[in-house]
Amino acid sequence: MKLAVFGTHEFDRASLEQANESLHHDLVFFEPTLSQETVALAKGFAAVCVFVHDRLNETTLQELRAGGTTLVALRCAGFNNVDLPAAERLGIRVVRVPEYSPYAVAEHAMALLLALNRKLPRAYNRVRDGNFSLDGLVGFDLHGKTIGVIGLGRIGGAFARIAHGFGCRVLAYDIQPNADLRAEVGLEYVSLDQIYAESDAISLHVPLFPKTFHMINRATLTQMKREALLINTSRGALINAPDLLEALKSGVIAGAGLDVYEEEDDVFFRDLSGQVLQDDILARLLSCPNVLITSHQGFLTKEALRNIAESTLANVTLFSQGLKLRHELTSSPA
Ligand code: NAD
Q1: Residue 73's domain spans which residues?
Q2: Residues with C-beta less than 6 Å from any ligand 1 atom
Q3: What's the CA-to-centroid distance between 323 and ligand 1, angstroms?
């Protein structure tokens, strides 16, 4: 089956080509992300494969349909970038990969927390520069501290288990509490207010829905402890970034580790090292010694890439054979 892969990077191509060895789909790789500007490239492809930075609004979906596309295969878990009701109206089916390695993202969230707390980026740069001073590098023991986890699905659950393994008290907030996880990790389901008030570190793992958009804002930041570290590996728009910057500048919280950023689409995954960064909020955040930003790489492990490629192409095969699809999205649960 002819599949147009958008937003292709070397690592996508390698894993998809490997997974396709026995399947023999006709994969065509495009570097640009799929949007209104690039949708013409998809003309004649029955299926397109997209990731988190592709923008599938109603107009783009209409053009896809007009060009003969009837399957959108997301090679990611989040689906906030697709207008699902519009896809449904147009008769375009949408599938995703809900679980490829929750450990990849959960471990990256913990890596951000550890590196931020123990100031590893500063320490690394100092030592490379021949500066072996320890001033300003004091962190805290995670053991015995309270970690707030917001969203205890696959990734949040994996993160809670890691935090439990570090000897932390885990406070949890989820609209659907999981009794098995509570028993296994000994976590306490509490209100968001209690998480904000008591946590030494907070890690966000809820999907981006209208209800969770900017859930971290000036009001909620001021509820947090001054020593609190905030970690976000879910979606950038969970956080109001200007409010976060203000809170970091004025010491309302102690630091932030971000793998995602609301305005990341035109920045993350690109080499902009020769240019002046146009996003002033991001530039200011990058200048803060208590901020650690990675470029949406939580998913970037060998295991996750293999699972993503195999699961995506398995769905393309089912689609080409007219069989029932796995992990099909019908309409936004928000
Ligand atoms: P999941 O569906 O397994 O879990 C989401 C959890 O959030 C569920 O337990 C659900 O009940 C809960 N939830 C939903 N709405 C809520 C609300 N309003 N308040 C509180 N809890 C709510 O999803 P997952 O696989 O754990 O992924 C979580 C998110 O991580 C994804 O939506 C995606 O945005 C992000 N993600 C990031 C990367 C990365 O590379 N950084 C990779 C994969 C996924």
Answers
A1: 2-100+301-329
A2: 77-78, 102, 105, 151-156, 173-176, 205-209, 211-212, 233-235, 259-260, 296, 298-299
A3: 28
